[in-house]
Design brief:
This protein has six helices and six strands; from the N terminus they run H-E-H-E-E-H-H-E-H-E-E-H. The protein has 156 residues and is an alpha/beta fold. The chain is 36% helix and 18% strand. It has a three-stranded mixed sheet with strand order 1-2-3. The protein has helices at residues 15-18, 32-42, 62-70, 80-83, 97-107, 126-142; strands at 26-27, 46-50, 56-61, 91-92, 111-116, 119-125.
């Protein structure tokens, strides 16, 4: 079911077509322990770091927190801005899916912040793109759908 665009599937060409799965953001002044506890309690990989006006400063994930610990940093003393990575530029909704996946792989992250009108509006994860691709390629061929995680309820 591939289209004339190499590596794309059906209508799934741009990040804006995949849809958001995370609105998690960290503030530059949050201490490292608060970031770590948030990541642990939500089973999240990471998220963008924003200043007080909501401008994107960088990205922080579990590897950045573990690297801070390995360097002997006290997570109560360091701030998100001290341990975040500054080299991960946000995507836009017009970013091609394949480019986003390449950037994730090159930067060792599994999600990218998405910017609209100069502000971070959500993050998109590799799982979102996998879910969409599997649903498009396999679902149409075999007659099944894969629900978005927000559309299902957890059974206790």
């Amino acid at each position: 079911m591939t289209t004339e665009h190499e590596g794309t599937v059906g209508w799934l060409n741009y990040i804006g077509q995949v849809g958001p799965s995370s609105h998690r953001c960290f503030r530059q002044a949050q201490n490292g322990l608060a970031v770590a506890l948030d990541l642990l309690s939500t089973h999240s990989e990471g998220g963008p770091v924003l200043d007080g006006d909501g401008n994107y400063l960088g990205y922080i994930n579990v590897f950045d927190v573990m690297r801070a610990l390995d360097r002997g940093m006290d997570l109560l003393e360091v701030r998100a801005q001290d341990i975040m990575r500054r080299d991960l530029a946000p995507a836009t909704e017009a970013t091609p899916v394949n480019e986003a996946l390449e950037r994730m792989e090159a930067n060792g992250v599994v999600s990218l912040p998405v910017e609209r009108s100069g502000k971070i509006v959500y993050s998109v994860k590799c799982h979102d793109m996998l879910r969409a691709r599997v649903a498009l390629r396999q679902g149409h061929e075999h007659g099944f759908t894969i629900p978005h995680p927000d559309s299902t309820t957890k059974k206790e």
